[in-house]
Structure formats: structure tokens, C-alpha cells
């Protein structure tokens, strides 16, 4: 109990052979009768990705990168939590817990961890980086009972930072990571000096319905689009996660289609998902769902917490980086209803929902600028 155990990935080769066999035996549907992504993942895009997955993709590259950063597991509240941990060599480094969302994973952070821990500029703020996998995601244990919502995860992350010996620390997140990080802010555990979100959480009030402010109008339009056209995945996962889970755990192509749609829709791209992320990056992420078979367990977080996403207020110091292609942009006035001690806000000119993944240099700069105000 409380032990930090080393964790090293070494997926058996026969698992990769079985995956290749499944990809070879895919039964494809007919092509969509539209010339865009309005009915979901396009057949041509998915076939292109699957062909690359089958022939050129190298899982061992990703496996080696994760092992090189440093992986660990520790039991918290009865559940084994997997996390990446890279300590900086700098004695003044600030401990940081950074949380991914869905359909992401800790691979979103592979492009930022080294720079955060060992800045190329010796004068820049450095961090001890802790990147846990959410319960039921990646190589964290799958909860066998209900109750693992964002509040419980927030308490677990506070325990993790204490267990690692970090008396003073900060927290960051986007997507579900934003919900968990907001919950950390509400909990205000001893030692947490502040939080940063790259998906600002805010809701409109009655007064916003008649607003002429362009930012408010943009946010209301995005909210309407999300509810009508983009939220089917969340409705299914928040009401019947087990049902969709069978397909996501059994079919690698079904899983890839489920995830690729969101990569396309939620990144800052010019029409193709590969404008924002490479096939290797996307497949690294998909593999962190496929190999541990987490399609169902990851979806259950929606069942646990989607209705409470972003509820409550945060009084500790908070910061926001607003990326232009965020799926639910929230004007600062909305966010300040939740983050009542907002000490940092910046509107970026490029980047989408997966900010650290898409724009690693910008993202690292945002964390330094924000947390410098809390260090």
C-alpha cells in the first residue's frame, strides 16, 4: 500500500500479430454518400490510416519512448494508477500534474515532457512532470465498481503528488483533464498552488442569450453545433457505455473510426486530420486504448461524471489558455463564474482541442507564463 512500483512496457509480439490479423480481416462498410465528414469518419481516411497501421506503424518506437520517460504504478484508493514521471535536474523545478482526456492519453504529452523538465532555455521555468492515466484509461487499472468520477480522481491525484514527495505543486488539464483539474481546484488540497486549463469551462447565463458580443455569439453557436451534431459519442458513452464498449474493445478498426472522427473534428486543421497530427501520433494514442482493451472502461467516465462537468467554483489561483479551435469556446466572462481567482488568460491564434499534442511549443510557453504567476 502506497508503494511506487516501476512499470515497463513490453507488449508480447503475439499480441501485435493478432492485431495485424484482425486488421487484415476487416469487413468494411460501403462508402458514405456524402462528400465530407458530416456522417462521420470517411471511409477513404480510415482505410489510409489502417493501411499505414498494418504495414508501416511501429509500436516499439512508442513503447520505447514511454519507457525512456519513466513509467510507474501505485495503488490509490484500491486502484492501480499508471503514470509517467520525469523529474527535472533543476532544484527550482515546480512539480506539475498534467491530465489527459478522451479520446486522448498520456501520449498527448510526449512532445512536451522533456522540454518542461529540462528547458532548452536555462532561464525558463522547469517542472517535475507527473502525467497519470485516468482510471480505466491506458495502463491504469479499470474500476470494477461505480464511483470513480472526477472528484474521486482529483483526490487521488492529490494523494499521488503527496506520495511522490511534492509539498507544493500545480495542476493542468484539458477535456476530462480540465474537469479533473477543476475538481482539484475546488478541493484545494494542501500544497496545490494553482491550476491551468486549456479547455476553459464556462456556461452561458440568461443574459447571454440576447448578447451581441462576437465572442458570446461564437460560443453560443459552437455550443449549439456541439449539442446537435457533435455530441452523439458523449450521449452514448454517458448513458450506455457498456453497449458501445463491446465494439470498441473487439474491433480495432471500429475503435480507430471512433477516435479518428474526433481527431478530425477537434484539431486545428485545413480539412485533413494529418494537417494537425501525424498518423504515428494518432496510432500511438489508439494503441493505448487497443492494447489494454479500455474502450468500455474509458467510456464509463462519461456515465460517472458527464452531467457534472465543470460544476462548482474554484477560488485558488487559476489560468486559462484559449485555443481558437476548441470545441466549446467559453468567453472569459463565462469562465470567471467558475474560476473566481483568474490570474492568467491568453487567447492563442492557432491550435485546437488537443493543445499539447498539436502545438507543443505554444503549450509549453503557456504553462510557463501561467505558472510563473503562481510559483
TrEMBL record:
Matching Gene3D superfamilies: alpha/beta hydrolase
Annotated transmembrane regions: none
Annotated ranges, domain Epoxide hydrolase N-terminal: 4-109
Highest rank taxon of the organism: Bacteria
Pfam families on file: EHN
Gene Ontology MF: a single term: hydrolase activity
Keyword terms: Aromatic hydrocarbons catabolism, Hydrolase
Family to which this protein belongs: Belongs to the peptidase S33 family.
Protein name: Epoxide hydrolase 1
Classification lineage: Bacteria, Pseudomonadati, Pseudomonadota, Alphaproteobacteria, Sphingomonadales
Amino acid at each position: 500500500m502506497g508503494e511506487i512500483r516501476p512499470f515497463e512496457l513490453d507488449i508480447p509480439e503475439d499480441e501485435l500479430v493478432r492485431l495485424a490479423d484482425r486488421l487484415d480481416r476487416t469487413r468494411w462498410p460501403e462508402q458514405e454518400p456524402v462528400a465530407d465528414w458530416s456522417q462521420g469518419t470517411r471511409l477513404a481516411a480510415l482505410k489510409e490510416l489502417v493501411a499505414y497501421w498494418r504495414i508501416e506503424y511501429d509500436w516499439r518506437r512508442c513503447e520505447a519512448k514511454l519507457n525512456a520517460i519513466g513509467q510507474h504504478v501505485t495503488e490509490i484508493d484500491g486502484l492501480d494508477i499508471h503514470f509517467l514521471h520525469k523529474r527535472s535536474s533543476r532544484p527550482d523545478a515546480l512539480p506539475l500534474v498534467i491530465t489527459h482526456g478522451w479520446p486522448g492519453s498520456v501520449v498527448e504529452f510526449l512532445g512536451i515532457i522533456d522540454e518542461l523538465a529540462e528547458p532548452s532555455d536555462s532561464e525558463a521555468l522547469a517542472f517535475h512532470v507527473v502525467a497519470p492515466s485516468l482510471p480505466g484509461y491506458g495502463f491504469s487499472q479499470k474500476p470494477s465498481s461505480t464511483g470513480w468520477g472526477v472528484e474521486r480522481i482529483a483526490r487521488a491525484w492529490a494523494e499521488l503528488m503527496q506520495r511522490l514527495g511534492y509539498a507544493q505543486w500545480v495542476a493542468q488539464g484539458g477535456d476530462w483533464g480540465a474537469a479533473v483539474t477543476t475538481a482539484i481546484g475546488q478541493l484545494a488540497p494542501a500544497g496545490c498552488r494553482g491550476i491551468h486549463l486549456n479547455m476553459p469551462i464556462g456556461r452561458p447565463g440568461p443574459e447571454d442569450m440576447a448578447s451581441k458580443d462576437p465572442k458570446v455569439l461564437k460560443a453560443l453557436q459552437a455550443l449549439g453545433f456541439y449539442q446537435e451534431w457533435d455530441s452523439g459519442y458523449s450521449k452514448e458513452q454517458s448513458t450506455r457505455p457498456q453497449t458501445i464498449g463491446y465494439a470498441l474493445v473487439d474491433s480495432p478498426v471500429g475503435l480507430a473510426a471512433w477516435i479518428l472522427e474526433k481527431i478530425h473534428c477537434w484539431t486545428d486543421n485545413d480539412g485533413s486530420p494529418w494537417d494537425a497530427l501525424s498518423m504515428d501520433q494518432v496510432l500511438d494514442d489508439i494503441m493505448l486504448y487497443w492494447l489494454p482493451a479500455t474502450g468500455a472502461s474509458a467510456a464509463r467516465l462519461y456515465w460517472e461524471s458527464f452531467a457534472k462537468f465543470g460544476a462548482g467554483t474554484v477560488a485558488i489561483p487559476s489560468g486559462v489558455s484559449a485555443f481558437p479551435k476548441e470545441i466549446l469556446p467559453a468567453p472569459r466572462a463565462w469562465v470567471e463564474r467558475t474560476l473566481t481567482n483568474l490570474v492568467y488568460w491568453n487567447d492563442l491564434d492557432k491550435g485546437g482541442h488537443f493543445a499539447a499534442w498539436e502545438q507543443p511549443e505554444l503549450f509549453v510557453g503557456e504553462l510557463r507564463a501561467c505558472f510563473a504567476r503562481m510559483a
